[in-house]
Amino acid sequence: MQRPRFELPEALVMEILSKLPVKSLTRFNCVCKYWCSCFQTPHFISKLHHNNLKNNNLNLLLGRHDGNTFPHYFSQLSNKKDKKNKVKQNIHLPFFKNTTPSVYGACHGLLCLHDPSTDKAAIWNPSTREFKIVPPSSIQRPPYFSSFGKGYLTLDYVSFNNAAFGFDSKTDDYKVIRFVSLTFVNREEEYPYPHFMHQVELYSLRSDSWKEIPSPDYTPTESNNGNICVDGICYWKTEYGGYLDFRGLILSFDMGNEEFSNLPIPEFGGSFPEYYVDLLVFNGSLGVIVYSLERTSTSFDLWVTSEGVWTKQFSIESISGVVHPLGFGKID
Fold first, then answer.
1. pLDDT over 90 for what percent of the chain?
2. Considering the domain boundaries, does residue 246 fall inside one?
3. Which of 22, 140, 150, 250 lies 20 to 30 angstroms, CA to CA, from 236?
4. What domain count does the chain have?
5. pLDDT of 294
């Protein structure tokens, strides 16, 4: 007598698969097209990443190159005690041949790679070694710029800066935002004075396309190490005002409603040009570390914001030999 066929609900199957090592999932891509497509969804990627965090299945990722030769490549180091400092694998990225891509943020174990000097960008999963090449932008660049007293200036150079990578939970989509700097010059002049214009582009992984969005009143003046993104909102530090009225500001972008807004820096009782204000993530919230430019008596103040209100968490007195703080982390 043939036993009745018993099938698990697909949701339960995906829950079980998300707890498996990445090496097993790579093999299971061949089981069926449905499993292969499910492994690429933001929900599954996020679930797999959080399960790896719980199980401490993490590896250290290093950017490397041999001397002055190209191409640059990445290496993964195993975190297992019996394989201390052992290179798990070397990963070459042929798409960025003869260029050095910058890592603009990590989200759910995915990395956004971007070459600021070109239009090349990619979303990379180091665990599965899957590599999604972002298509070039189709957004039009103005070839000329009319400047009073100088006639028409021609477009000379395009650069891509201050990219950020985040997750939009409203549409279950990964997005990349970047600021495009356009440099215009008068080619007839021997030493042309440049004039700058900016555009802002947003990439959606779901639609696999770029679109232009309205530029904010201010643009980032300082690149973050990676990018600061909290709950789908990305942050950059910017500055405005003249020399005698120089002020700092935090520019934010909501991946969900695709709108910019401004957030003041905390009122720490000092003059902004005389202090560093570094952005960071602290306990899942946006924070800043404030410290003086003077190296003789540097103290570090940590401020954290909640719904736009800054609260000073603590202050660390001067420590000799410290150049700048890197951030905070939990040590077990």
1. 14
2. no
3. 140
4. 1
5. 67
